[in-house]
Amino acid sequence: MSPRFATDIITFYHPDFWGLASADAVREWASANPEGFWVRVMDALAEAGVTGLELTFAPGDIASALRAFGSAPAFRRELAARGLSVVSAFIAGNDCPDWRDADNLPAIVADAERRAAFLAAVGAELLVTGLPMRTTFGTRPPFFVDAAYMTRMADIAHAVGEAVSRQGVRLAFHTESNSTLWYERDIDLFMSFTDPRYVWLCPDSCHIALGGGDPVAVARRHSQRIALAHWKDAIRPIDVELTVDETVFAQQQPYMTALGTGIVDWKGWADAMSRTPGADTVLIELDEAADPVGALRAGRAVATAALA
């Protein structure tokens, strides 16, 4: 059976798609016109032949969907009318309580439970998050991603994973560049510290490659814990030490590229993905595409060829 194609709503954040001057202008307009934002995104998804979506940070977040349509069931009906459905929701690091603060565990769990309740109501089963970011190399005192750190992160992941599992939702971790789940070694360490019943993996082929890793090798090693993957291409590994602050995501952008134009081994990746629990969904991630419909169609063609 052919997989369904999906994308993250960040694909639609490019100001050119909205005829606006900047990303800030897009956020402001979407905040004031949530229904208009979602209707255009849904129509574009249907036009591109992409039927699944991953909610993310504003303006394509849970809160904006609720403002636009009033409730999760109403949002689900709007999607279904166009042959669409929610696959997952992504929690951005700055959009939830800080995992590094030990006092935040009750708030972290409550935040995840709220999101899981929405996902269950729209018929989705995956909550995707990440681990905190690293600090800029050379920062004093230094911050080490070691066994003690991963033990703390695993404890939180277990608490969150168990809580959302009660609502039929699985918790999967995304391999974000410059985060503490970036290098192949980070991924192996965290997965070895966590219980596979409660903690899943959402590998991102681009971000793993940006860290100098082999996305295919990661996917093969952890195949039975991959609930979803982000299909994304990279030009080359990041070859400088980036400043890890609010601009780090923009700093990473020049190293990313459209599917099929970079260094990811798509044939190997597709083969590895076909052996995972998440094989039924191909999530093409295109950060802020000026022509999202065209870019998604091109991405679908690359993925389809690789899967064949």
Compose a concise summary of this entry.
The protein is an alpha/beta fold and 308 residues long. It contains 13 helices and 10 strands.
Description:
It is a single chain. With 308 residues, the chain is α/β, with parallel strands linked by helices. The protein has helices at residues 15-18, 23-32, 34-48, 62-69, 72-80, 105-122, 147-165, 184-193, 205-210, 215-221, 248-252, 266-273, 292-307, and strands spanning 4-8, 52-55, 85-90, 126-129, 170-174, 200-202, 230-231, 233-234, 256-257, 281-284. Helix 3 (34-48) packs parallel to helix 13 (292-307) and helix 10 (215-221) runs parallel beside helix 12. The model has no long low-confidence stretch (mean pLDDT 96).
What is the string of SSEs from the N terminus onward? EHHHEHHEHEHEHEHHEEHEHEH
Rg (CA only): 18 Å
* Biggest sheet: strand arrangement: 6-5-4-3-2-1-10-7
Task: Tell me how many strands there are.
Answer: 10
> Strand count, sense and closure of the main sheet?
8 strands, parallel
Number of helices: 13
Spans of at least 5 consecutive residues with low confidence: none
The averaged pLDDT comes out at 96
What distance separates the N and C termini?
Answer: 12 Å
Principal-axis shape equals globular
Helix % is 40-55%
Structural category is alpha/beta
